[in-house]
Design goal:
There is one protein chain. This protein is of the alpha/beta class. The chain is about 45% helix and about 15% strand. The protein folds into 3 domains: about 110 residues, Nucleotidyltransferase, domain 5; about 180 residues, Nucleotidyltransferase, domain 5, CATH 3.30.420.150; about 190 residues, Orthogonal Bundle (Hypothetical protein af1432), CATH 1.10.3210.
Length: about 500
């Protein structure tokens, strides 16, 4: 039985809801998400009291989210509260008020629990081994050192975009002495974490609204060809450029900056100062953005609640299998096309010279080449390309994602030259030839299973001086498959530079 699960994150700056669908076959996807800037951590002061207006905003927002979940037939709503509620002297009373007014109960996360859920969100959606994870919220920052994809150290600092801005940047346009004091304070805060020295030079993976907005600004500045934020990388120099540029602007001017949320314009500098200083402090080459964090971590814990540990072994493979279930891919056909594609790839290696990385691209493309059928059979190869570039396939870099989408689409006809030019900012110059070659292999394999019955069990490739003979190992008559192969695969000679001899059955 399918389920819809709502998860509400009551943060210092914003309250966020994600609505996740779990299918009957165990597949899952994001159905919807909503964010409201409630600022419950605003103006708490040294007495650490959440004020009446902030409580009202929290209650009204939770009511809206509860109504939304009810309208979408959510089977359960899980509420979690973080830094503002945790640190407020009246945090428990606030949650009691919300529960009384809305019926939604919230669990106050400890600093360690918050770090753990952020880790679960990242580790189940990005491929990495050693990294420093950072989540900059409105009122706290979590730092998590991972080695071999496991937590070895974590720390929580009582600083975030809201309180850093309130305490250090009161001027309309930040003054040099204000910025200097803020950066010194940040350095002092980082110095309180003894293990942070051991993270020097490691990649930083960032979570949270500040870092997502940083990514959106950078995408607009560079005119990035993909509308993707998850797994987006920003070099440290570009972070500094954006940070220094925003220091010279007023809040109203920031609201006009492409990519920057108007609701975050007044607090973005406090968060960016922390990102910039952390990059300097650790010597990290840049930052990689994770679109999954605390809320997704709570979901993964629920989804994998019967596992010994709610962490997938292989992010890419898990995501590919989820896609196949989610988009109702005919598994036997997809896996057989993958088998034939890889057999062709392995036997024709003397012609193309590719290795394990290209083999991975081909395998994933073959397994997912028919996901576009969920839209329509007609032009489904083009729909496949769109789905792969716009639905979140976790684990792949943006370059790998573009390559997989293009190779998968090559089992039909596409304007490959245009697509290569469109994504030239992501691809390498040599990628075009690779796509053409892998595309031929996947088209051959697709047509060798035209009846989707596995008639052609395997292929035998014989590379001669002036031609390649490809014979089919069959278990019954394969006339249709061989005819389709002959009609549809017409560019083998051009792509591989050698003649392709019509196959025979063996």
């Amino acid at each position: 039985m399918s389920k819809n699960i709502g998860i509400i994150d009551l943060g210092s700056n914003s309250i966020r809801l994600i609505l996740m669908k779990i299918g009957k076959n165990g597949s899952y996807k994001l159905l919807d998400e909503i964010k409201e800037t409630a600022r419950i951590g605003e103006n708490m002061g040294p007495e650490r009291v959440i004020k009446g207006p902030a409580i009202d905003r929290a209650v009204q927002t939770t009511k809206l989210f509860q109504k939304f979940c009810r309208a979408n037939r959510a089977d359960g709503v899980h509420g979690v509260a973080t830094a503002a509620i945790r640190s407020a002297v009246n945090g428990g009373e606030v949650l009691e008020t919300i529960m009384k007014e809305t019926g939604v109960s919230f669990r106050i996360l400890s600093e360690q629990e918050e770090a753990h859920y952020e880790y679960l969100g990242v580790v189940n959606s990005l491929e990495f081994n050693d990294a420093l994870l950072v989540d900059i919220g409105g009122g706290s920052t979590e730092l998590i050192l991972c080695r071999d994809r496991k937590i070895v150290h974590w720390a929580s600092l009582p600083i975030g975009a809201v309180n850093l801005t309130e305490n250090f940047l009161p001027s309309t346009v930040p003054q040099p002495d204000e910025v200097k004091q803020l950066e010194k304070y940040l350095a002092d805060q980082f110095a309180t974490i003894p293990w942070l020295e051991s993270a020097r030079g490691l990649e930083i993976i960032g979570v949270g609204g500040t870092i997502r907005n940083l990514g959106r600004i950078d995408r607009k500045r560079t005119r990035y060809s993909l509308n993707l934020l998850h797994n987006y990388r920003i070099h440290s120099e570009r972070v500094k450029e954006i940070y220094h540029h925003l220091q010279k602007t007023t809040v109203e001017e920031r609201k006009a900056i492409p990519g920057l949320s108007k609701e975050r314009a007044d607090i973005i500098l406090g968060g960016l100062a922390e990102v910039s200083k952390l990059l300097n402090y650790t010597g990290a080459p840049g930052i990689r953005i994770s679109g999954a964090g605390l809320r997704e971590g709570v979901f993964y814990e629920y989804l994998f609640r019967d596992w010994p540990e709610p962490v997938v072994d292989n992010v890419t493979e898990h995501s590919v299998q989820n896609f196949m279930d989610l988009y109702q891919v005919r598994r036997y056909h997809a896996e057989h096309v993958a088998k034939l594609s890889l057999s062709l790839f392995d036997q024709l290696r003397p012609l193309h010279g590719y290795g394990l990385w290209e083999r991975k691209i081909l395998r994933i493309a073959a397994l997912l080449h028919d996901v576009g059928n969920v839209v329509s059979y007609y032009n489904h190869h083009k729909h496949t390309m769109y789905v792969l570039l716009n639905a979140r396939l976790n684990g792949l870099s943006h370059r790998e994602l573009v390559l997989v989408s293009l190779v998968a689409a090559c089992h039909g006809k596409i304007d490959l030259k245009f697509k290569l030019q469109q994504h030239s900012d992501v691809l390498f110059p040599q990628d075009g030839n690779m796509v053409r070659r892998l595309g031929v292999l996947i088209r051959m394999a697709e047509n060798l299973d035209r009846t989707e019955s596995g008639v052609v069990q395997d292929v035998i490739c014989t590379i001669k001086e002036k031609e390649v003979q490809i014979d089919c190992v069959t278990n019954e008559n394969a006339d249709l498959e061989i005819r389709e192969l002959y009609k549809k695969v017409t560019n083998f000679n051009k792509v591989f530079g050698i003649k392709f001899k019509f196959p025979k059955e063996v």
